Amino acid sequence: MPLPAWKPIAGGVLIAWCLLSAGAALRDALGHAPDPMDEQQAAFLPLVPELPLRGEIGYLEPYHSGTEADVRLHYADQYVLTPRVIVAHTGPELLIVPPGAEDPSGDPRLAGYRRVRTLPNGIRLFRRFPG
Fold first, then answer.
1. Residues 27-47: what's their mean pLDDT?
2. Could you tell me the pTM of the whole model?
3. What's the average model confidence in pLDDT over 25-43?
4. Residues 59 and 100 placed together within one structural domain of the fold
5. Are residues 109 and 51 in the same domain?
6. Do residues 72 and 12 share a domain?
7. 25 shares a domain with 80
8. Domain limits for position 17
C-alpha cells in the first residue's frame, strides 16, 4: 500500500526543521564569549598546590572602595578554592593579595607578612612570619 503523499513531505519538513534548529544552536554556542567568572576562577588555580587542604586563608580587600569587578574576583577566589574558607581580612597564616589590592604608598595591612609566590597574572600569596 503506497504512503499518502503528505507523509514524505511532513517527514522532510521535520528533518529540515531539526537541522535548522541544530545549526542555530551550534552557531549560538560558538559565538558566545568565554564566561568571565571561568577566567577569574582559573586565575586562582595555580595557588592550589601552595595552600593547605582546609582552613582559613586571608584575602586582602582593595584599599579603595571595591568595584563590582573586585567583588567578582573575590567570589571567584572563594569558589575555586573550596573547601578552604577565604576570609576578607588579614590574620590567617596565608594571605591572597589580588592585583591592585594593596595601597601603593605602603600598606600597613601587610605588616608581618612576606610574599612567597607571585603568579604571572599578578595575584600574590603572602605568609605570616613572626617578628
1. 74
2. 0.68
3. 71
4. yes
5. yes
6. no
7. no
8. 1-32
Say if residue 127's pLDDT is above 60. yes
pLDDT tens-digit series, residues 106-121: 889 899 999 999 999 8
d(CA 131, CA 106): 19
Instruction: Say whether both 78 and 90 belong to one domain.
Output: yes
Identify which has the larger pLDDT, 130 or 94: 94
How would DSSP label each residue in the chain? -PPPTHHHHHHHHHHHHHHHHHHHHHHHHHHSPPPHHHHHHHHHGGGGGGS-SSSEEEE---SSPP-HHHHHHHHHHHHHTTTSEEESSS-SSEEEE-TT-S-TT--GGGTTEEEEEE-TTS-EEEEE---
User: Total domain count for the chain?
Assistant: 2
Q: How far is CA 113 from CA 2, 21, 55, 81, 108, in A?
A: 85, 57, 18, 21, 10
| Same domain (yes/no): 67, 86 | yes
Whether residue 15 sits in one domain with residue 47:
no
